[in-house]
Amino acid sequence: MNNGRVAVVAGCRTPFAKSGTVYRDLTALDLGKACVRELVERSEVDPSAIGYVVMGQVIPSVKAPNLAREVVLGTGLPAGVPAHTVNRACASANEAIAEVASAIMAGHAEAGIAGGAESLSDVPILHSRKMSRVLQEASRARTLGGRLAAFARVRPRDLVPDTPAIAEPSTGLTMGQSAEKMAKENGIGREEQDRIAFLSHRNAAAATEDGRLKAEMCPVLISPRFEQVVTADNLVRKDTSMEALAALPPVFDRKHGTVTAGNASPLTDGAAAVLLMAEGKAKAEGYEPLAYVRSWAVAAVDPGGQLLMGPGIAIPKALARAGLELSDLDLIEMHEAFAAQVASNIQALESDAWARDKLGRSKAVGKVDRERLNVCGGSIALGHPFGATGARITTTLANELRRRKGKFGLLSVCAQGGMGFAMVLER
Ligand SMILES: CC(C)(COP(=O)(O)OP(=O)(O)OC[C@H]1O[C@@H](n2cnc3c(N)ncnc32)[C@H](O)[C@@H]1OP(=O)(O)O)[C@@H](O)C(=O)NCCC(=O)NCCS
How far, in Å, CA of 366 to CA of 52, rounded? Predict the structure, then answer.
């Protein structure tokens, strides 16, 4: 067993980019390798000290489904480092961090890397079941005639590709439709959503301009020619305004809806990772950790109800495990899948009825201080590469806690399947 805490020693991410833009020819693995390579170099950790690598990816590649292991093999980490890939939807990198932290707490490793990567430019596009049956039969056929006979059964509609939907398998609703439902049922208006989006861009633009976010990024060289280098996020709009946001049409309910391209997180490519270490080991190696893991919690709600309310349960659980109240926090990082989801979860935390009905408590969890929320921007402005976001948020929270000489910070992420993740960091 490890006697001390788990230290967040360093964090790093690629610049985040709208999918189909600068990273359109790269894979999630390319992005994951770029960021882990840089994390190891910058932190100067001895690669032989790394005991585990865990990475998150939500839409895995069929060619390299265990992204984490390929990251180990492709970044010069020792081949003897075991690695696996996890999927807790948008909280996958958080899950990776929790798993490496658990391994360190159990004494199974002294140090590990946890993060995630996603490329929505490179999602697997499937053939229909009939087409894949035909292809399998044709590949098994021993004669040209047999092969032609298999292909003769193909009809034009069999050629229609099957693309993965960002939808809830159990209900069929897309994430956007689920956010619309939450906005309507919780009375979250368009202006409140646009305000959250506006602040996300304003804070992200400020943190970009003064270099706080830049310090967390590694450059990404674009293969195969390696002539182009990506050094900055490309989704942050420093010139956005409440008026510009108000002018955007609703996307998921075109007639009565309030969720727009402006107040939803965009489809994004990117990777992020953190270096975790046992407190004793970090100190012995002369590191000054950014922060320590104090507690975490996962939770789940029925996806048939309000899909993205997991944080409303995970947050009080993580706080209780940390022995803290919302008022003890210096900073809060809340993943912004949609502004409607952020507002709904804040409303729940501040509601006596939510506390009574969902948490078995007599009083609301507490007030969320908006001045301490997503101070470097959030996923609406920065983007949301599903598998990576959790490590981006953890890195920013740890760095900002240190900058502000804060003591406690909380992060939360909502995820498909009605799940939520929350973690408390301390200094
Ligand atoms: C909402 C969504 C469909 C929009 O996709 P899109 O149409 O490709 O979005 P775009 O970036 O092209 O934006 C659409 C328009 O809004 C404008 N816009 C977007 N954000 C803006 C802002 N903050 N200010 C001003 N204009 C903005 C764009 O400039 C664009 O204008 P144009 O049509 O004149 O070029 C897509 O981002 C999406 O599916 N998001 C949800 C992802 C999701 O489900 N995640 C899971 C979370 S759990």
Answer: 37
CA of 379, closest atom in ligand 1: 47
Taking each helix axis from N to C end, the angle separating 144-152 and 129-140, rounded to the nearest 10 degrees, works out to 170
Which amino acid is it at 70? E
Tokens 């490496």 locate to 100
Q: Give strand ranges (E) for 216-342.
A: 220-221, 229-230, 268-278, 291-300, 331-334
Expressed in angstroms and rounded, the spacing between residue 149 Cα and the centre of ligand 1 is: 46
Helix (H) or strand (E) holding 28: helix 28-43
CB distance 93 to ligand 1 below 6 Å:
no
For residue 318, report the phi and psi dihedrals to the nearest 5 degrees.
-65, -40
Residue 415 CA, closest ligand 1 atom number: 48
Residue 56: CB within 6 Å of ligand 1?
A: no
Contact assessment for residue 270 and residue 14, using Cβ atoms and an 8 Å cutoff: yes
Closest Cα partner for 403 from 382, 422, 376? 376
Ligand 1 atom nearest to CA at 414: 48
SS3 content of the chain, % helix, strand, coil (to 5): 40, 20, 40
Q: Is the CB of 247 under 6 A from ligand 1?
A: no
The 3-state DSSP class for residue 70 equals helix
Q: How would you write 193-207 as a 3-class SS string?
A: HHHHHHHHHHHHHHH
Q: Would you name the residues annotated as active-site residues? A: 90, 384, 414
Per-residue pLDDT tens listing for the chain (427 residues) = 677 899 999 999 999 999 999 999 999 999 999 999 999 999 999 999 999 999 999 999 999 999 999 999 999 999 999 999 999 999 999 999 999 999 999 999 999 999 999 999 998 888 888 899 999 999 999 999 999 999 998 998 888 888 777 889 999 999 999 999 999 999 999 999 999 999 999 999 999 999 999 999 999 999 888 889 999 999 999 999 999 999 999 999 999 999 999 999 999 999 999 999 999 999 999 999 999 999 999 999 999 999 999 999 999 999 999 999 999 999 999 999 999 999 999 999 999 999 999 999 999 999 999 999 999 999 999 999 999 999 999 999 999 999 999 999 999 999 999 999 999 999 9
CA 190 – ligand 1 centroid, Å: 15
Token pair of 369 as six digits:
């201080």
251 lines ligand 1 (CB under 6 A): yes
Entry field: residues in the chain = 427
Q: What spacing in Å lies between the alpha carbon of 72 and ligand 1's midpoint? A: 34
